[in-house]
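User: Could you go from structure to sequence for me? I need the amino acid at each position, not a summary. Structure tokens:
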């Protein structure tokens, strides 16, 4: 797992630890079933155990890790049920964001969406999954930011990472080309100020994710016998 041991800024410590662990799970650096010991992660990140524990709790609430009392926390498998649940929430909230954003979108916003979709299509053709995911996030973030709904943005930040794991499979397949076409249709609807049509398409876009097959069961975690002593942040 390529985690830097450089000391993190104190004011952003909790958020940075969460982001690093979340991204490592989404990109597969932390594999499904892998054990996550807070002391080991704290050493590798150059922080105390406290922000690591807080980050793992947040990741558990999002469904990215599984925690069993008295045992090591493990990276959650790619679970079709969790993906379906996240799809329903994320799709609905993107529809809310797009409907609110359409009357506020400027030509600069639309140009940003077009540029992001062009980058997405190029990355997909090149087989660069990381670049495709980054461009896809840029594309959808335009409407979310334009909507200006903090509650929507907060919930999306919690559940979108669950779908990003499945998207890595989709964007590595031919389905990625269909995503670029849907993006183009969404831009056209936004440009036409068709808020309802754009909202429907935005919701549908997030219903296309599904694992290729049922995941294998996660390995049984080993008991974690390390003492749970608290240390200062």
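Assistant: Here is the amino acid at each position, in order:
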């Amino acid at each position: 797992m390529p985690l830097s041991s450089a000391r993190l800024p104190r004011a952003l410590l909790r958020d940075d630890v969460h982001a690093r662990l979340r991204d490592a799970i989404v990109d597969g650096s932390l594999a499904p079933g892998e054990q996550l010991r807070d002391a080991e992660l704290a050493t590798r990140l150059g922080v105390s155990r406290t922000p690591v524990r807080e980050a793992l709790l947040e990741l558990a609430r999002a469904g990215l890790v599984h925690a069993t009392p008295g045992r090591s926390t493990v990276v959650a498998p790619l679970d079709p049920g969790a993906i379906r649940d996240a799809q329903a929430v994320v799709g609905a909230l993107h529809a809310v964001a797009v409907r609110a954003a359409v009357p506020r979108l400027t030509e600069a916003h639309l140009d940003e969406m077009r540029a992001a979709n062009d980058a997405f299509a190029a990355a997909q053709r090149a087989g660069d999954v990381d670049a495709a995911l980054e461009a896809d996030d840029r594309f959808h973030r335009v409407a979310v930011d334009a909507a200006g709904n903090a509650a929507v943005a907060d919930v999306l930040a919690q559940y979108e990472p669950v779908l990003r794991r499945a998207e890595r499979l989709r964007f590595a397949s031919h389905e990625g080309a269909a995503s670029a076409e849907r993006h183009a249709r969404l831009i056209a609807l936004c440009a036409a100020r068709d808020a309802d049509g754009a909202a429907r398409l935005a919701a549908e876009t997030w219903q296309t994710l599904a694992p290729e097959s049922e995941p294998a069961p996660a390995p049984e975690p080993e008991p974690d016998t390390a003492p749970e002593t608290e240390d200062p942040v």
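One structural detail worth keeping in mind: The chain is about 65% helix and 5% strand.
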